[in-house]
């Protein structure tokens, strides 16, 4: 059993009961993962994540290398709009967060007496959604006189790799690809992230969402395009790979969207139905090529012994397979978290909190969220 590296919880009496589990109507499935151990329990990190449209809570070990629970409530209200509506997301977090936190403690078989610190995403994200999580984390930490750890959402995505491979140690190069962010970072031995390159326009996930919308597919766009592309020919249509020949580590997806738009304008409805799988396959392949090409360039420039691929787009099967195959050829290690740790979740926030500075009680009462 790992020993605690942090002070024990302050004794302030029995924990106050949490609000009962939120109503389940119109809710997606709540997923609880990682079985709770039956041996003696050390103190833990309780983590909260509400940066976008997933209401998340998790219980993570103090060294950030293991999770006892990871509860994710995905909001389904946004499907009708074709994208996340910030006000709707904020209200849904407010309604459901208490129940999600309660379930994370129950799944881990942990009480608040065994929580020694609270971690929460404070940036970047939708400001209203972030504020719900920050307010809840402050309340929990203050009520029990615990320290609070503010976590950058992007650092959380990288930290998901430590849950996947507990023996992983920096340095390495990390690709974060999601609906709101696409960037390359080098991670040094102190786990500090240094930006190497980023998208000049859309994020990869955003490009997939917009491409899916043009093709008449569902939301979110990544899974919808992958499903449509399953029987398509990736080489049937020529799609541009943004900044392919530029001597940098930046990304661009605006030209790819324009290319798809012009191809669709040249087709009538019947032709589009026939060509849809091939268009989806070619579009997806262009996104994957842009991401993998720049990642491998970063490996070469920085002589990285390993790469980490994180963020919601990292759940894409073609991207995972392409990067694994190319890194295997050059002898570079690859860590890609499983899909449930690629999309937004609180376990990754707890993992990042293990090495992040904590704000002591009660100094965090003035802590605020930031959208960027």
What does this structure look like?
This protein has 372 residues and is of the alpha/beta class. The chain has 10 helices and 10 strands. Strand 2 and strand 3 (67-74) form a beta hairpin. Helix 1 runs parallel beside helix 2, helix 4 (204-214) runs parallel beside helix 6 (254-265) and helix 5 packs across helix 7 (269-302). The longest helix is centred in the C-terminal third of the chain and has 34 residues, at 269-302. The radius of gyration is 21 Å and the shape is globular. The two termini are 38 Å apart. Mean pLDDT is 89; it is low at 1-40.
Overall mean pLDDT stands at 89
Q: How would you sum up the major sheet?
A: 5 strands, mixed
Unreliable segments (pLDDT under 50, ≥5 consecutive)? 1-40
User: Structural class given helices, strands, pairing?
Assistant: alpha/beta
General shape: globular
The CATH fourth-level homologous superfamily of the largest domain: ATPase, nucleotide binding domain
Brief rundown of the structure:
The chain is an alpha/beta fold and 372 residues long. It has 10 helices and 10 strands. It folds into 2 domains: 44-164 and 344-366, Nucleotidyltransferase, domain 5, CATH 3.30.420.40; 172-304, ATPase, nucleotide binding domain (Nucleotidyltransferase, domain 5, 2-Layer Sandwich).
Q: How do the helices and strands line up, and which of them pair or pack?
A:
Elements: E1 44-49, E2 54-61, E3 67-74, H1 86-108, E4 115-123, H2 127-143, E5 148-152, H3 153-164, E6 172-177, E7 182-187, E8 193-198, H4 204-214, H5 221-229, H6 254-265, H7 269-302, E9 306-310, H8 317-330, E10 333-335, H9 339-342, H10 347-353
Parallel strand pairs: 1-4, 4-5, 6-9, 9-10
Antiparallel strand pairs: 1-2, 2-3, 6-7, 7-8
Helix pairs in contact: 1-2, 3-10, 4-5, 4-6, 4-7, 5-7, 7-8
